[in-house]
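stage 2 :: seqdesign
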């Protein structure tokens, strides 16, 4: 049995940066330090942060004082205003790539365009982007949905930074039929595109593929969907304990990939679990960065 780890697996630049900012903030600031929402979709890492004095809160209303860290997904302008009103200190760990998408949305809104955003309605990045669109943003989740849109003279389309490239292309193609002048901005970040490509390449050459990551992580779920299109024997697991021997039956080559918030330790634990069960040497296509 051979185990191959997808290239570019591991925490993305934006999540690593946000973790570093949170730890530096804790060192420098007195009083309570909390992140607005989980910094990363990994319960162990969140627990570790908590033990170091960095809480995660879903609602700023429960905070009376202290410092609030904005996570890599970014937030809408309303949230900054809410923090100022409550006199809470804000430390902004929004990923610079997401910041650029927010600026793009704000500029397109100023130009008066309808902005189609291909993304998940409930995803925090999308909620932030909608906040910058001044009511001109429209979330689209599938090309089918485009059929219901009216014909327009001008429109722009862009994507959540972790969107499935294949879906984005299909939505953009469908919008061409509905728009005389369509501006297309591929805002899927480079790290996401490379990760998706590496996962689909791996899915094409292994018998079984495990996607490791939090079930609430949107980019990890997309990797799962991408891999499933190629390889039905794809499993979405949150941790190594979920690997069962029945999943590995008649498998000679096993692939492992993870999302932007999957720590390298989670990938290593999956490799150890498979090796412990089968006691075979493994080969790594790439180590997590
Ligand atoms: S996936 Fe890309 S855009 Fe999103 S936080 Fe990571 S590096 Fe930034």
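stage 2 :: out
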């Amino acid at each position: 049995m051979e185990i191959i780890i997808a290239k570019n697996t591991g925490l993305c630049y934006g999540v690593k940066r946000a973790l570093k900012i949170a730890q530096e903030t804790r060192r420098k600031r007195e009083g309570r330090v909390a992140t607005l929402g989980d910094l990363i979709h990994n319960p162990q890492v969140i627990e570790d942060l908590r033990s170091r004095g960095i809480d995660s809160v879903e609602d700023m209303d429960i905070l009376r004082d202290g410092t609030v860290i904005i996570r890599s997904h970014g937030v809408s302008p309303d949230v900054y205003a809410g923090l100022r009103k409550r006199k809470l200190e804000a430390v902004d760990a929004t990923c610079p790539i997401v910041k650029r998408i927010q600026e793009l949305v704000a500029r397109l809104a100023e130009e008066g365009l309808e902005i189609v955003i291909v993304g998940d309605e409930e995803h925090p990045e999308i909620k932030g982007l909608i906040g910058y669109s001044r009511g001109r943003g429209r979330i689209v989740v599938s090309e089918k949905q485009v059929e219901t849109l009216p014909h327009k003279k001008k429109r722009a389309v862009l994507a959540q930074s972790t969107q499935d490239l294949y879906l984005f292309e299909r939505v953009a193609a469908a919008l061409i039929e509905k728009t005389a002048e369509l501006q297309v901005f591929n805002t899927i970040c480079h790290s996401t595109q490379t990760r998706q490509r590496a996962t689909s390449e791996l899915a094409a050459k292994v018998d079984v593929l495990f996607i490791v990551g939090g079930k609430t992580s949107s980019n990890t779920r997309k990797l799962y969907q991408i891999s499933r299109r190629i390889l039905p024997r794809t499993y979405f697991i949150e941790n190594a304990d979920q690997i069962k021997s029945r999943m590995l039956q008649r498998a000679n080559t096993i692939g492992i990939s993870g999302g932007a918030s999957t720590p390298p330790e989670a990938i290593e634990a999956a490799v150890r679990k498979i090796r412990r069960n089968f006691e075979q040497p493994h080969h790594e296509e790439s180590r997590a960065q």
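stage 3 :: structure notes
- The chain has three domains: 2-10+191-278, 13-95, 97-188.
- Residues 12-15, 72, 95, 97-98, 161-162, 189, 191-192, 260 surround iron/sulfur cluster (CB under 6 Å).
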